[in-house]
Amino acid sequence: MAKTKILFITHEMSPFLELSKISEITRQLPQAMQEKGYEIRILMPRFGTINERRNRLHEVIRLSGMNIVVNNNDNPLIIKVASIPAARMQVYFLDNDEYFHRKQIFNDKAGKFFSDNDERTVFFCKGALETVKKLGWSPDVVHCHGWMSALIPAYLKTSYKNDPTYKDSKVIYSLYNDSFPENLGDDFTKKALTASMKESDVEGYKGGDYLSLYKGAIGYSDALVLAEENIHEDLLKIVKNAEIPVIDAQNDTDFENYCNLYEQFASEELETV
Known about the structure:
By secondary structure, this protein is an alpha/beta fold. 31% of the residues lie in helices and 21% in strands.
């Protein structure tokens, strides 16, 4: 029997970038699943704070060279990879000089939210899906972590729904307490569109704030994970009205709840938990 393939998409992961609980889970969960016999891939941005020499990143020439269109502009995508020897895992990093070669993550030195965080988000989500296509690897499950991956479910269920790489993929979205007070701007949803998408496809994301991003992602997901405590009350209300499986993994230190959810996808017997 073929191994179940899980694609993890996140904007942070230990030891490369540690901003929140997300980095801890995205470090431990893939390893736990790999040890259980799943086939995994991990993608994240190559933010400028990630030291290439210390983490031994190197460019993957065969994957680099694509251009990702954001707001009608072509943006070169460079793919780098690093290994975590203790876990026998590789992590693919999406890089671009304009979007990621700065020494801050989402806010400048003065604490101001970067004005192009909307485009950086679109670039990352589009780039991640195109990178996996170029890998020639079709995931059974795409598991998204963090608000920067919020557009992935929408893309998979609209412009990529008939793509051979993703046509059978299920989408899991993990919910965290990673809120931010700013928003991605009024033009975010327009910039997020691909050639085959309509404005109505991204209606749920309008506003570009933390809740809107999660609301949009939830609307296109096949299952949700409550990954940590103190999740925003308004977000929990949205979850309560979602007619899809929801698992509570807040205290799932051995990742059994995750494993059970993946197994339900693999056996195509997904039921509401």
